[in-house]
Amino acid sequence: GAIWGGVGYNSLNDGYWQLHVPSLGFHSAPDDPTLRRLFGDSDGNGTVDGSNDFAAFGSDFGITAGSNTFDYNNDGTISSVDFAQFGNRFGVTL
Hints:
alpha+beta
């Protein structure tokens, strides 16, 4: 699927997200987003870097086992398409 309305290929787009659960009366504070999404940031430190993320991507490259952290287009395979998206974000910090 294409990217639309904050979701691309069945995943949140890169950026900061707030969580709202109206049925529970929960809303995260507007100035304190509770979720951060950056494709390629496998260790959750907010940066796509060479220390952990690049090594993890290399380990997963070529895997065809369903959903994966590095499967950008959600096609079930970690391929050059996914590597291009990883490369676009290399060195980026949220």
